Amino acid sequence: MYVNLTPEFKQSEFGEEAEKILRTCVHCGFCLATCPTYQLLGNELDSPRGRIYLIKNVLEGEPVTDNTQLHLDRCLTCRACETTCPSGVQYGKLVDIGRKVVEQSVGRSRGQKFKRELLKKVLPNPKLFNPLVDIGQALKPLLPKSMTQALPDKQVPHLWPSQVHSRKMIVFEGCVQPKLTPETNLAAAKVLDRLGVSVLRVAGSGCCGALTHHLNDEDAALSAMKRNIDVWWPHIEKNGVEAIIITASGCGTEIKQYGYYLQHDPDYSDRAQQISHLAKDISEIMSELPVDQLISHQKTDERVAFHAPCSLQHGQKLKGFVEKLLQQWGAQLTAVPDAHLCCGSAGTYSILQPEISKQLQANKIKALESGRPDIILTANIGCQTHLKGVSSVPIVHWIEWLASKLELEDNESHA
Description:
Blueprint: H1 7-10, H2 15-24, H3 36-41, H4 48-59, H5 66-73, H6 80-84, H7 91-106, H8 110-122, H9 126-138, H10 145-148, E1 167-171, H11 177-180, H12 183-194, E2 197-200, H13 210-214, H14 218-238, E3 241-246, H15 249-255, H16 258-261, H17 269-278, E4 279-281, H18 282-287, E5 303-306, H19 310-315, H20 321-328, E6 332-333, H21 349-352, H22 354-369, E7 375-378, H23 381-388, E8 395-397, H24 398-414
Parallel strand pairs: 1-2, 1-3, 3-4, 5-6, 5-7, 7-8
C-alpha cells in the first residue's frame, strides 16, 4: 500500500510504526471473510480493510468526521483479521493508533464521555464494582432478567491450597473476575497443586489495563500496567516465581504486550519485557506439565462445546491448546460452526455497541448449542458472563470443569 503521511504524523511517536503497518497491507480482502462486523453489516468501512483505509486517510491529512469514529468504534478488536491476513498486518496496533488520533480530532458527545468515564471508574475498581454486584445480587428477584442475566449467584469462598511446593507461580487476579467467578482461579490453584506447583495470590495487583486501553485512556492503562509490575516484581526477583498464570484470556493478551506498551519507558521497559515473557495462559502452563498423571481411566463421556475466545485464538494464537487438553480428559467435543467469530463481548463493547453485540451473541449461542452439548466451556470471564445469561446450557471456565472432575474422582475413591 502506498502511504504518504503528513509531516505532523510522520514525525510523531507513532508515525513510523503506523506507516510500516500500513505498507504491509496488500488490499487482498481476505480479512473481510473473517470480520464479524462486516459479516453483519456488509459495509466495507466496517471491515479491517475499510478501517485501514480510513486510518490511512486520516494520517495523510484527510478530514476526520464522526462517521470515521463510528466505523472505528464498531471494531471489536477481535483480531480475527490478523489470523487470516497472509501479509501479517498488525491491525490491532494500527486501530489503536487510529482511534487515538480520531478521538483527539473529533472528541465525543457529553453522553458518550459520561458512559465511558463511568466504565473506566467502576469496572477496574473493586471498591466500587463489588458493592454494586452485591446490591444486584440482593435485588435479583425484583429486577428484570435483562439487568441480571450476567450476575452470578453468591458464592461461598473455599480454602486455597496450603501445601508449599518448590515450583511457584503467581496467578493474575484481575478486576471483575474475583467477584464474578472466584472459583476460576481457585480451580487453577487446585489443579496445579496436584501437579506440584504452588499458586500465589499477590495483594495489590488489579486491572491489567485492557479496559482503559481500549477506551483510549492510555495514561490510565499504563498506570495499571506499572502498578502490576511493581507488585509482582519482588516475587519474581526474590521468590523464584517462574510464571504469571492468567485464566482470563483477554487479560492475558494485554499482559503479554506490556513489553510493547512500555518499550520507551526507561524505568519499566526491561521489567515489562520480562513480565510479557513470564505471562502464560493457564492452558500453556497445563500443556507443559505432566497432566497424564491426573487423567483417570474412567474418562468423562460428556458432550462439550468449547468456546475459544478471540483473545485466546487470535490475540494469543493459542488455538487448539484447550481443546487438546479437554480431549485428553475424554471430553466429546462438539462441532462449533464459525468458531473464529467473536461472541460480541469484547470488553466494554457489549455496553457501548449493544445492537451489534446482541446479534453476535445470538449467533454464537446458536453455534455453540448446535451440537447439543451437555456443557459449554470457555476461557475468558467477559465471554463467560456475556453468553451465560442467554444460554440454555451451563457455561463455565474449562479449568473449573477439570477441577470438578478431579474432585468427583476423589469423592468416588473415598466412598
